[in-house]
Structures are given as structure tokens and as C-alpha cells.
């Protein structure tokens, strides 16, 4: 038996899926969740083979729930079942660890076959999702890779600045003079093309520069 958990915030969708899947001799629906938080709780309780996961749900969406499920129970497979076919949904879902991506207009028999394919270790993608995934991957490949423009010492200063420290506190932490700190901060603003400490801190968070350099 293929043990399936349904996660969808619409009661009618859950009921429809339950009604149809119960007619399959090789599929058992072990639970229903109306959001990502419940999905994780029921995965822990019932240990399904496959989670039919909606994308947009309250409290925790399907992508976040999938990430948590795959990080804790990597053998449990996730099949996204959603109304969204654009690359902004498809790519994050697959990167989160989903084994398949189908749209809710799928024929019932095709959905069952998708479940069986995933159980066999195969991937299953709606044609529209395949197109969007390929487009999304091409865009990711063409994006310029981030290059840290700061010297190791400037990154150290930025990391301390991000913590909300004053110039004096930064100087004390790094064992340099306040004048040196001011010079580094001026260089940081110029290189990052920011106007103030707040913008610099936001830049640091966005590009994962909140920790001291490896040379610290």
C-alpha cells in the first residue's frame, strides 16, 4: 500500500482527493492537513510514503513545509498539487525537495499514476511546470554570481556594524582605532553603493555578510 497524506487548505479539495484515492486498491490516505504546520505534525505521526502538498496555505506554505519535511524525513516524498504553474512557484518547490509537480486540473487517473511514479522513485512534472522549471533554471544560470567587494577587514567591520555597534565598540572589538573604523566604513559605503549604516546592514543580511571573514 502507498500511504498518502493530503495537505490542502480547501476542505472541498481534500474531500475530493480522499473520495477518489480511497477507490484505489494500492493507496491508503492516512491523514489530512489544512496547512503546512499540520502537515509536518501528521507526517511525524503517520509516516506516510507521499505527501500531496498544496502550495499556498495559511500558517506555513507548501514550500516551507516541504523543506522541513525533507530535512527531517528525507525518505518521505512530496508531490506538489497546486493551481500555480509559473516558474516563481515551480522552481522553489523543486529546490525545496519535491519529487513532482502537478496542477489541480490533472485528470484523476493521471494523478494516481503520478503517485505511483513517485513511489517507484521517478519524478513527475506537469508539462507547463516542466517548461517553467527549465526557464527558471536558465534564468538562474544567467544571473551574475555575487562577488564580495570587501576586503576581509572591511567585512569584519560590516559584521560588527550589522550588530548595531558604534564606531567605538567596533574599534574595541577589532583592536583598531576609531579613525581606522571610520575609514573602513567610508570604504564600505562606497563599495556597496549605500548611503548609511542601515542600508549597509540590509546589504549584509541579503548577501550573507553578517559574519566575520574567515581571516578574522
UniProtKB/TrEMBL annotation:
<keyword id="KW-0238">DNA-binding</keyword>
<dbReference type="InterPro" id="IPR011006">
    <property type="entry name" value="CheY-like_superfamily"/>
</dbReference>
<keyword id="KW-0805">Transcription regulation</keyword>
<feature type="modified residue" description="4-aspartylphosphate">
    <location>
        <position position="54"/>
    </location>
</feature>
<dbReference type="Pfam" id="PF00196">
    <property type="entry name" value="GerE"/>
</dbReference>
<feature type="domain" description="Response regulatory">
    <location>
        <begin position="3"/>
        <end position="119"/>
    </location>
</feature>
<protein>
    <submittedName>
        <fullName>Response regulator transcription factor</fullName>
    </submittedName>
</protein>
<dbReference type="InterPro" id="IPR001789">
    <property type="entry name" value="Sig_transdc_resp-reg_receiver"/>
</dbReference>
<dbReference type="InterPro" id="IPR058245">
    <property type="entry name" value="NreC/VraR/RcsB-like_REC"/>
</dbReference>
<dbReference type="InterPro" id="IPR039420">
    <property type="entry name" value="WalR-like"/>
</dbReference>
<keyword id="KW-0597">Phosphoprotein</keyword>
<feature type="domain" description="HTH luxR-type">
    <location>
        <begin position="143"/>
        <end position="208"/>
    </location>
</feature>
<dbReference type="Pfam" id="PF00072">
    <property type="entry name" value="Response_reg"/>
</dbReference>
<dbReference type="InterPro" id="IPR000792">
    <property type="entry name" value="Tscrpt_reg_LuxR_C"/>
</dbReference>
<keyword id="KW-0804">Transcription</keyword>
